[in-house]
Amino acid sequence: MKRRGFVKLCATAVASVTASPELLARENQQYRRYGRVALVDSYSKEPVRAVTLEVGETYLFHYPFVSTPCFLIDLGKTVDSRSHLQTRDGKPYRWQGGAGPKNSVVAFSAICAHKMTHPAPSVSFINYRHGETQFRNNRDEIEERSGVIFCCSEKSVYDPAHGGRVLGGPAPQPLAAIELEYDDSADVFYATATIGGEMFDRYFSEFHDRLVLQHRRTDIDATMDGSSELMRLSDYTQHTVSCQA
């Protein structure tokens, strides 16, 4: 390639990255593409329709692996903040915002970024609070607001309207986000990738035996394929722990 052509090619590539925050995030390796998995209702096995999602309800599905739980929430408002975030080791990334016909549906890994507290069939210490909730923020002040993900293990609090950023507590980084693709022609949601800091290797290692028993399979790190069943958190777990500051 001649020098002039090479310089032009490099300039075009730089311009493309600058113009696309999503591409920049992927270049920073905080975007990890997995299988394109359709979300289906756990009872009917039919695709989850946007109109069937209840605003403020905490739904659960598994992605990108068969044993890694995720939250799906319709926040009831347009979420297009495309928040600037960073992992615990300072790697920057940008979150894509909401999905669905109103850009109000978001999804996050349900594994707390502090000690990996996560929903289990017996109990869940982490959940979404749509109503007003008190918590101690990052300035060590009592704050009250609605629409937060609250982990009662060590009282880490996250903001799902801004990419799962940490509002308070010891969590060192935001919740890993799940990229949602919405096909408006078919009214179908797909999970396609994770964005942000993953904790899956540590999760598999520390909870291996319990996860094998819970999921009745040894390949707990198998990637999801085809579809993932969506259900209410209250249908998945026997007891949801609620707490405040």
Question: Could you say what the CATH topology is called?
Answer: Rieske Iron-sulfur Protein
Q: Helical percent range?
A: 10-25%
Largest sheet: 7 strands, mixed
Q: Give the N-terminus to C-terminus distance in angstroms.
A: 63 Å
CATH architecture verdict = 3-layer Sandwich
Structural classification: alpha+beta
For the record, the CATH class is: Mainly Beta
Question: How many distinct domains?
Answer: 1
Task: Tell me, rounded to a whole number, the average pLDDT.
Answer: 89
What's the order of the H and E elements? HHEEEEEEEEEEEEEEHHEH
State the fourth-level CATH superfamily.
Rieske [2Fe-2S] iron-sulphur domain
Number of strands: 15
Radius of gyration over C-alpha positions, nearest whole angstrom = 19 Å
What ranges have pLDDT less than 50 throughout 5 or more consecutive residues? Answer: 1-21
Number of helices: 5
Question: Could you please describe the fold and organization of this structure?
Answer:
The chain contains five helices and 15 strands. The protein is an alpha+beta fold and 245 residues long. It has a single domain, classed as Rieske [2Fe-2S] iron-sulphur domain (Rieske Iron-sulfur Protein). The strands form four sheets. Strands 6-3-2-15-1-14-13 form a seven-stranded mixed sheet. A four-stranded antiparallel sheet has the order 7-10-11-12, with no helix packed on it. Strand 11 and strand 12 (165-168) form a beta hairpin. The longest helix is centred in the first third of the chain and has 17 residues, at 3-19. The termini are far apart. Mean pLDDT is 89; it is low at 1-21.
